[in-house]
């Protein structure tokens, strides 16, 4: 199976059959495209041993013949494909600045949400992406080195544990993957936020704000402005390849922060945060 996410093309082989049906549901017209076109990354699943093909079968994910994860049970392969695609981009694309963050766009204006795992950034981005915003990515901002604009990738949004129920309760008609229980991150599911047809209309967007979110159950909404130095530091801290890019990375981030506002967000009410974000775009 070939998956075209816009900037990157992946070929997936050797996965259990259920993975292909789930990927087809999530990515629709982005899968099974022309095999004649070159792919950027090859993701292959192989068996760990002949015995493991019979007893408690396991698979190992290899990227271009390089093993990147520990062996996993067959019923946990689906999240590994998504994680493998993330790993490929973060490890090998140094033609763009890559920042670990969600990206939301409205009126051609982008807001970047750099944050550590567990901050709730993907949940926030997915809820807003299903409610009028364009979700360019729930995993990484892809920043052009010349214009400092961000572009979209056609990927499903990743949800963990309680977030799956939260999003499903508000958007029960959205297209969800099966939930994989017992991964190293707990329960994992993916949701299609935009179709391929919608994605194809997403152009580069200028960054007008950088917001560092932190979900705290029951907390009142707090919005703390940050200065440019604090914002710059947050982006550097969450970048995958800033140090690799060197001077180019610095110049790109410098250009990005000139036109952006910076905030730290502490919240439990998504609607209140959504109202605030609307004022920024």
Automatic annotation (TrEMBL):
Keywords: Kinase, Transferase. GO terms for molecular function: kinase activity. The keyword S-adenosyl-L-methionine does not apply. This is HprK-related kinase A. It comes from Alteromonas aestuariivivens.
């Amino acid at each position: 199976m070939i998956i075209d996410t816009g900037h990157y093309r992946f070929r997936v082989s050797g996965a259990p059959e259920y993975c292909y049906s789930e990927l087809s549901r999530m990515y629709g017209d982005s899968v099974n495209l022309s095999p004649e076109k070159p792919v950027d990354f090859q993701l292959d699943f192989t068996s760990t041993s002949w015995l493991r093909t019979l007893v408690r079968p396991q698979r190992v994910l290899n990227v271009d013949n390089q093993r990147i994860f520990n062996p996993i049970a067959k019923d946990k392969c689906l999240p590994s494909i998504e994680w493998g695609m993330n790993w490929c981009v973060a490890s090998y694309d140094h033609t763009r600045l890559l920042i670990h963050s969600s990206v939301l766009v409205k009126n051609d204006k982008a807001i970047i949400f750099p944050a550590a795992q567990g901050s709730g950034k993907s949940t926030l981005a997915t809820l807003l992406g299903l409610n009028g915003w364009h979700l360019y990515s729930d995993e990484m901002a892809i920043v052009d080195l010349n214009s400092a604009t961000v572009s979209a990738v056609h990927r499903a949004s990743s949800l963990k544990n309680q977030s799956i129920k939260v999003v499903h309760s508000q958007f029960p008609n959205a297209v969800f993957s099966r939930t994989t229980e017992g991964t190293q991150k707990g329960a994992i599911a993916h949701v299609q936020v935009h179709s391929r047809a919608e994605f194809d209309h997403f152009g580069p967007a200028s960054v007008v704000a950088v917001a560092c979110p932190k979900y705290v159950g029951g907390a009142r909404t707090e919005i703390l402005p940050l200065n440019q130095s604090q914002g710059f530091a947050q982006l550097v801290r969450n970048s995958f390849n800033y140090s690799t890019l060197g001077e180019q990375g610095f110049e790109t981030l410098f250009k990005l922060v000139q036109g952006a506002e910076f905030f730290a967000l502490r919240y439990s009410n998504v609607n209140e945060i959504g109202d605030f974000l609307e004022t920024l775009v």
